[in-house]
Predict the structure.
Amino acid sequence: MGNKQIAVIGAGIIGRTHLDAIAETKGFAIAGIVEPASSGESSSNQYGCRLFPSLNELIADRPDGAIIATPNETHVEIAVGLLEAGIPVLVEKPLAVTVDDTRDVLAAVERLGVPAMTGHQRRYNPIVLKARELAKAQQFGHLVQGSVLCSLKKPESYFEAAWRHQPGVGGPLLINMIHEIDLLRFIFGEVQEVTAITSNRERGFAVEDTAGAILTFRNGGLVTLSISDAASAPWAWDISADENPGRFPAHAVQSHFFCGSDGAFSLPDLTLWSHPGEKSWTEAMRSEPVLVATENAYVNQIVHFGAVIDGKTEPRCSALDGARNVAIIDAIKRSSAIGGRLALDQSGLKAQGVYQIGDV
């Protein structure tokens, strides 16, 4: 059998990351690129693959699957078009920019039976998979509290792409915090309530540059999130986890702290803390680094996508997961706007539903 042919729509920063992953993954090949900007031609030359002038011409070529890495507001139209053509998709986060738009993708998946994944690569990182295991382990107990810090000083050149500071499309909530939401859901389960505040004081854009949120989980526990794309600091997964070598540095710091009834652990260093004897603040705790294999999360995601295309497994991060993440980001925005708590009604968690949001 030949290599599985995966196309990439969008050859920007994240598109090139996916192209690198496909090129690196045994048994896979780049079917082609759709990208009208100059980066399309340069990328097709770099990877030695075809540059398609349009999505329709790519569809006519019948790739085995496609990765959508275009600006956020274009995800749904492209995804639905590919699904209607019978081509499985991996939609880079966010699945859509509104909860209503996510329903279009969910309806297409349900109607057509063609698989769709949401691109949250951390679910394929051995560090996160082990953290999920720790969260269910006896040494940790159950979640009581947690803290996530994401501080990313983005240069002015980053915002030359206008969509990145366009209301309803850009901003660090949809671009960055949504990854934290997915990680938290993957490790600790569904979110029940949200309280949040946002600010645009640093950059003055029409979208937020800084935000804070408190999430209450259905299974118990509170986690606070603080995010900014205008603050200079190393405390963020992206610039500490070494998940994207060459694009981001890897500072030897922690950015995620989770405290359970019986123990605690931090990320991305994956250190477990526990009491050897009585669980008391008067007793010293011991730390234990948890070792895992170093693997490329994007490559692992491509391998999983291939298994989903072949019908061998269900998506680890489905379109429904992507929709729920968008719903939580929407709740964070609404909570900030009204200055109050919002409940995420669990009745909205049915097979092809998303969260229903109401005031507390």
